[in-house]
Amino acid sequence: MLASASPQVVANSPALLLVKLPKFDNQQSAITPYEKKSKRYKEITSAITYCIAKDMMPISTVEKQGFKKLMSVIDAKYALPGRKYYSKKSLPQLYAECRGKLEEQLRNVTHFTTTTDMWSSRTSEPYMSLTIHYVDKEWNLQSRCLQTAYSLDDHTAEIIAQGLVEALASWGLSEDRQVCITTDSGANIVKAVSLNNWTRLQCFGHRLHRAIERSGRDKRIERAVGICKRVVSAFSFSWKKRDLAAAKRGAQTHKMVIESPTRWGSRQKMVERVLEQEKAIAQVLSADKKTSIWFPRGRILLFLSHSTRH
Questions:
Q1: Could you report the per-residue pLDDT of 94-148, keeping only the tens digit for each?
Q2: 147 bridge partner residues
Q3: Nearest to residue 273, comparing CAs of 212, 306, 231, 237?
Q4: Nearest to 184 by CA among 203, 197, 200
């Protein structure tokens, strides 16, 4: 409520005019939030939804204290909805909009190819992804991920084959327009493609990775790679060694890489980084009697150097 309906003149003279401004109580001075139908409210909500989807952030982010503080500073008049709003309404609405736009684009595609792969998340949950590739009217190569579906059923060839057919049908894509599908060499996916009578193209990256793995079945390679893994592990589990190596290598900012069976080319990157930072690593490890014998020397270093060049 206003303390006075109008300003009150306190003094009146040719030189000075003082006006007593009306006062507001605490309730009136509080910031009035945006209405949910207002343009500004919709813009901010849409931006948060896009951020969650684009950067694959947990929906629970909107309920974190840090995020709430951030939004209150950016715009104190915006009342942040809870995660249920984003999971039940905002994100599904964004998905529907994106899907509608992509479906419109795909209507004009006469021929296309697809790639698919079965993979597991960090929590060992199985998924199957399907990506479409095509050339648009401007002769630009386009690639769009159509789906990443949770696949709890047994990964038999029959189930995979049916899942692929249903995936294309859900997007209104005719199998007749599919030139080929690219997959890895898994027995179940190879059979699934055969059951659908589709033309299959083998994944070059997967075949190259398998060829490198098989060529590495040599005692000399296994010994050299094993030493590299021990060296990298020594720095991975010791911040002191890691900081010392960073100081000794000066301007060199590359971090060491550990080999991962599911990351193609990670072995070569691991060996390259060890050779690149050879001097810094040797100085740090040689200062510790327990690790001084770990660093590769002589023929092993020469062998690693040649292995990364070929």
A1: 999 999 999 999 998 999 999 999 888 877 788 999 999 999 989 999 999 999 9
A2: 130
A3: 231
A4: 203
Residue 85 amino acid letter: Y
Single-letter amino acid code for the residue at 4? S
Instruction: Locate 143 and state its tokens.
Output: 């690639």
Rounded to a whole number of angstroms, the CA Rg of the chain reads: 31
| Residue 9, C-beta contacts closer than 8 angstroms, at least 6 positions apart | 17, 18, 19, 20
Token pair for residue 264? Answer: 């193609």
Which of 285-289's residues contact partners 24+ apart within 8 Å by CB, and which partners?
A: 285/231, 285/234, 285/241, 288/241
Q: How confident is residue 84, by pLDDT bands cut at 50, 70 and 90?
A: very high
CB 228 within 8 A of CB 271: yes
Query: The dihedral of CA 164, 165, 170, 172: what is its sign?
Result: positive
Q: What is the pLDDT of residue 223?
A: 82
Please say whether the dihedral angle defined by the alpha carbons of residues 95, 99, 100 and 102, taken in this order, is positive or negative. Answer: positive
Q: Judge whether residue 216 has pLDDT over 90.
A: no
Using alpha carbons, list the distances in angstroms from residue 8 to 12, 13, 91: 11, 15, 53
Alpha-carbon distances, residue 153 vs 77, 160, 228 (angstroms): 47, 9, 39
For the whole model, what pTM was predicted? Answer: 0.68
- Chain segment 234-252, per-residue pLDDT in tens: 777 666 556 655 655 554 5
User: Pairing relation of β-strands 112-120 and 178-183?
Assistant: parallel
Q: Which residue has the tokens 């327990």?
A: 290
Q: Are 117 and 202 in contact (CB under 8 A)?
A: no
Residue 83 sits at φ, ψ, to 5 deg, of: -65, -25
Report how far residue 143's alpha carbon sits from residue 131's, in angstroms, rounded to the nearest whole number.
7
How does DSSP classify residue 218?
Answer: S
